[in-house]
Each structure stands twice: as C-alpha cells, then as structure tokens.
Design goal:
The complex is a heterodimer of chains A (127) and B (93). With 127 residues, chain A is an all-alpha fold. Chain A has one domain. Helix content of chain A is 77%, strand content 0%. Chain A is elongated and about 65 Å long. Chain A starts with a helix and ends in a 6-residue tail after the last helix. The chains are: A mainly alpha (127), B mainly alpha (93). At the A-B interface, α1, α2 and α3 of A face α1, α2 and α3 of B.
Chain lengths: 127, 93
C-alpha cells in the first residue's frame, strides 16, 4: 500500500513541476517586455524547481533508499531559491541602470526617458 | 514519470534558446542563458534519477552555483565594462 502512494505523490509533484516549467518557458517567449520576461523566467526557477525537487526527494528517500541524494537535491533547491531571485534582481537593475525603459503591453514606454530609468535604478540620490 | 519531466525540460530548453536567439536586447539573452542554466540543473537531476544513478545530483549542485556566478560576472562586466572595477562603491551603497 505504501509504495504506490509514494509513486503517486511523486508523480503528481513532478507533473506540477513540469506544468510550471512549461508555462514559464511559454511566458518567456510571449511576454512583450524584458521585465515581464524576468517574471516568467523566475516562475520556472521557483515553481518548477520546488515541485520537481520535492518529487525527487520523495523518490530518493523511499524508492532509491538513498537519503544522501535526497538531502543533496534539497540542497540544490536551497541554492537555486537563493541565487535565482538575486540574479533576476541584478539583471533588472543593470537593465534599468543602462536606460532600458520598461514598456507596457502595446509597447508604449512607461517611463518618459532613459534618464529617469537610470535615476530610478541608482539606490543613492545624486549628491 | 522521469521521462515526462526530461521531455518537458528539453522542450522548454529549446524555447529558452529560441528566446536567446530572438531576444532584441542583450538583457534578454542574458536572461535566456540564465534560465537555460537553471533548466540544465533540473535536467541533470532528473536524468540522474531517470537512469537510476541519483549521485548525479552533485553535478547539478555544482552547476547551479557556477551558473549563478557566470550570470553575475556577465552582468558586472556589462555594467562596469571591467570585471575588476571597484566603481560600484560610489553609486550602489
């Protein structure tokens, strides 16, 4: 009774992870602007990673009887959840600093000029 | 099950590469390469479990960290035109 329950739960978790990954990748293609694509890419980093790694840990602990692999997969998730948002933040800040103006759905720029984008990106006001 | 995850990951990697080629600005390319890297991490982990050798996860762990460092290095080089520059003290803190 116990084995098929583990298989079922890990199947479900990995399937949900796949849904997140595919939706993130489609969002990466179809989103109009860089900053919205950043959101779509981070959907795959966080949503997909969490569910797939949970499914893998279940498999590692019960089916493969290899708890060390389960712990390492959780470590992979731990580092991914730290590094992905930081990388997205650094990318958005660099883009804004170099004057990449965010645009809305129809391509109309939200900020009036790249200079305001650069001013917004600087964390300290101009001396 | 792992085959489904592996196929989904491979398809999304093709989509990410498509965004990397098509991306108008350089930031789209950096984003696509970063996203491709995290998908490779998941692919290595899932493929390790697919072939019954769960010790692939060490490679995925190392790859996750190196991918992050690569993205930050490219961003710093792009922002300050010099990897070793200490110019960021003025405007970032």
């Amino acid at each position: 009774m116990f084995a098929w329950l583990i298989w079922l739960v890990s199947w479900g978790l990995i399937a949900v992870g796949c849904v997140f990954i595919v939706s993130g990748a489609i969002g990466l293609i179809r989103m109009p602007d860089l900053y919205t694509r950043l959101h779509a890419a981070s959907v795959t980093d966080t949503g997909g990673a969490i569910f797939i790694v949970l499914g893998l840990t279940l498999q590692a602990f019960f089916v493969f009887d290899n708890p060390m692999a389960g712990i390492k997969v959780v470590l992979v998730l731990f580092f991914t959840l730290f590094t992905a948002p930081t990388a997205s933040h650094a990318l958005a800040k660099t883009a804004l600093l170099s004057g990449h103006v965010p645009t809305d759905g129809e391509g109309k720029p939200i900020l009036d000029s790249p200079e305001t984008a650069q001013r917004l990106a600087k964390s300290r006001p101009e001396k | 099950m792992f085959i489904v995850a592996t196929l989904a990951l491979l398809i999304t990697m093709v989509l990410t590469l498509f965004r990397a080629l098509m991306g108008p600005t350089i930031f789209d390319r950096i984003l696509a390469v970063n996203s491709f890297g995290t998908k490779t991490v998941l692919l290595i982990a899932v493929y390790g479990f697919l072939t019954g050798r769960p010790d692939f996860v060490d490679i995925a762990l190392v790859y996750a960290l190196i991918n992050y460092i690569g993205t930050i290095a490219v961003l710093k080089f792009f922002e300050y035109d010099d990897l070793g520059s200490d110019a960021y003290q003025e405007d970032d803190f």
